[in-house]
Design a protein that fits this description.
The chain is α+β, with helices and mostly antiparallel strands and 164 residues long. The chain is 30% helix and 14% strand.
Length: 164
């Protein structure tokens, strides 16, 4: 997954280190786009974490719905076809879009296929996690640190078990 796995890494760190209020779901939904539609439909608010093109690899950027909806729909040449913007547009047309959407974007250093994050994106994980925590506090649903944090479950980095 390479740097494109920044979202699952952030989700794994959040689940390992924090407890969340009822009504808050922290979910790795895989590749976003229209597949994200059922997860966002009818929500009051959503915070999405993903790799987002940026000027500086490893840079973390918080992008709110007001800015997202002003983006032009770019041509798609990645696994994120169609993207978050198209998902939000479809939900707006259906009257089911969240009123508050925040994208926590981390600029990838490499989108080459692989399983490990590049060192610069791995170093950005604490800032991305903090950005999500800040957004949840802003939304009035602050998470609580787990009394006994666990290591993040990075299941996709474990060797596959081969049946004998």
């Amino acid at each position: 997954m390479g740097d494109d796995a920044v979202g699952p890494h952030v989700v794994a760190r959040l689940l390992a280190g924090f407890e969340f209020s009822p009504g808050v779901a922290v979910v790795d939904v895989g590749t976003p786009g229209l597949d994200l539609t059922p997860y966002l439909a009818g929500l009051r608010a959503a915070v999405v974490v993903d790799a987002v093109r940026g000027d500086t690899p490893g840079g973390v950027r918080v992008i709110r719905k007001g800015e997202l909806v002003t983006w032009s729909v770019p041509p798609r040449l990645s696994p994120h076809d169609p993207g978050l913007l198209e998902c939000l547009m479809a939900l707006e047309l259906a009257g089911r879009a969240p009123a508050d959407v925040t994208l926590v974007g981390v600029a990838p250093a490499s989108v080459a296929t692989g399983t490990a994050l590049t060192p610069i994106v791995a170093a950005a994980l604490p800032a991305a996690v903090q950005a999500v925590l800040d957004e949840l506090r802003r939304l009035g649903v602050p998470p609580r640190p787990r009394p006994q944090p666990t290591p993040p479950d990075l299941w996709w980095e474990r060797p596959a078990a081969v049946p004998r």
